[in-house]
Amino acid sequence: MASARAQQIAAHLNCPKGMLHGQVAIITGSGQGIGAETARLFANEGAKVVVSDIDGAKASQVAEEIKKNGGSAIAIPGDMLDDNYINELVKKSADFGSGKIHIIVNNAGYTWDGVIHKTTDKQWDTILALHNTQPFKLVRAAAPYFRVKDGEPRSIVNVSSTSGLHGNAGQANYALAKAGVVGLTKTIAKEWGPAFGVRANTVAFGHIATRLTAAKEEGAFVTTPDGQKVALGIPQAQKAGREAGKDAFKDIPLGRPGTATEAAGAVLALASPLMSSYITGQTLSVTGGRNM
């Protein structure tokens, strides 16, 4: 007799509705960039997607686009640094999923760079809260929907960075936070895997073409809860120096940055019970071969 796991895989293989059919997925920071692409890919694979983003207009736009294309989505905008929002996000997501949540993708975040001797306490505390404390609080709040034995797959994908694996000048706060993501992920895998079958994995992105790697002069920014604007991106002179001439991206074997869609595909691979049902506690580096 086939095992329950084999039966589940067979069901997915024979299901034209997608690898994530019927699963409810919270994707934070999904109003744009990698998060939005992840939301679209998940919806294409049959997931019921919760679009979470601080920008309500962008969150609604992604959700509406998914629905127009025949998918299922709801926008639940809010600030991940607000504990009340986290509780609201979990409650509304469970209501949307008829009492169930299957996937969390902790993707929301940004960089607030500074060399060590000039980094302020506010820079430090904000980045660690956004990338470590609040994802932990989201997972903790969602525990009643993951610590269950209903035979359905549960998966958590936490987004890290090669800055967390290797460090990066000017990013002490971000590097520490993204290294912490790896430890949090492994702990979830060890605590919730044995009894409940919950998988938890990390995806560490290298150079992906997003607003965080665009020229700072393009003007992208985020606003902190107290109204301070944080410029995003890499200064043009520094960016041009890295990417100029025939040696552009010479340290990346594939010779180019990754796209947001390619990054989202890696998240989908880790979340899918078809593609990664026996993978947990691991960090997948998505770098085009850099740092291999």
Automatic annotation (TrEMBL):
Transmembrane segments: none annotated. InterPro entries: NAD(P)-bd_dom_sf, SDR_fam. One of its GO terms (biological process) is fatty acid biosynthetic process. Pfam families: adh_short, adh_short_C2. It comes from Cladosporium halotolerans. The keyword Electron transport does not apply. Belongs to the short-chain dehydrogenases/reductases (SDR) family. This is Uncharacterized protein. GO terms for molecular function: oxidoreductase activity, acting on the CH-OH group of donors, NAD or NADP as acceptor; quinone binding. Keywords: NADP, Oxidoreductase. The keyword NADP applies. Gene3D superfamilies: NAD(P)-binding Rossmann-like Domain.
